[in-house]
Amino acid sequence: MSEIIIVAETGSDVSAAEAAELGIELVPMHVSIGDRTIDDGALDPAEMLEECRQLGVLPKTSGCTPGDFAKVFDRIHAEHPEAQILYIAYSAVTTCSYESARTAAEGRDYIDMFDTAHVTIGQGFVVTGAAHYLREHPEVTLAELKAYAEDLARRTRMAFIPGDLGYLRAGGRLSNAAFLGATLLRIKPVIEIIDGRLVATKKLRGKMVNVALELIDMMYAQGPVDHERVFLVRSSGLPLAIQEAAEERVRELGFKEIRWYDTRNVITSHCGPGSFAVCMAAPVA
């Protein structure tokens, strides 16, 4: 029985503590604040937002470099020379990370990988699901684990409501016209992940607490749902009342396991403070 180690980016928003508990290796993405660049997760997101406010700048993000992956691959291979690696990737159309990993993996026949076509906790949902599957089936082969994770990625659906549209605009993920219109009309766009891309699919109006509940209902209504688990995501500044209302709603819908995740620096840089996301999956066909 060969050992398999799962690798993912910090942009999956899986916490360092959970990654350590599940044996997941995280490769850092990066954020630039003015003329300073930090690893994703190196700074509390609230502190990052405050630093940006004081400097009068918005954070800029960048993916993992080939060197970031090579460092992690080298360490894993040195510590576990017989281990195989499954890299479960952040959406390849949104960042250079997947290509960086391909470059770093050249000549390493013990590495396999695939593009989840998800970002933030959509990717995290797949990564943690694969890690739990590996723990429950230690005899699984690398090909079997990859097939399981690929199927889970296809079944996973995630969407979010940005807390501040200015962050999406600064990151090139929202046009100026859409930004101005949404701001003037107090619209909250629903951002879904479709074919790996962030797409505004619906416009919601009203207080954030009502919009968050509408987002949950909208995602739930898209088709059959596996009620085993649901992930709820918040960025710094999301009011507690909204979190409590969201958790009550998913309990009413019958989800058994409810997990909250906090966005790290990279995802906070895209969605801004006070954002909310929900992630769930269709049942196994």
TrEMBL record:
- Is the Ligase keyword given for this protein? no
Question: SUPFAM superfamilies in the record, alphabetically?
Answer: DAK1/DegV-like
Name recorded for this polypeptide: DegV family protein
The organism named in the record is Collinsella acetigenes
Q: Which GO terms describe its molecular function?
A: lipid binding
Kindly give the NCBIfam families that the UniProt entry links to this protein: DegV
Keywords for the protein's UniProt record, in alphabetical order: Lipid-binding
User: What is an example of a Pfam family matching this protein?
Assistant: DegV
Q: Highest taxon of the source?
A: Bacteria
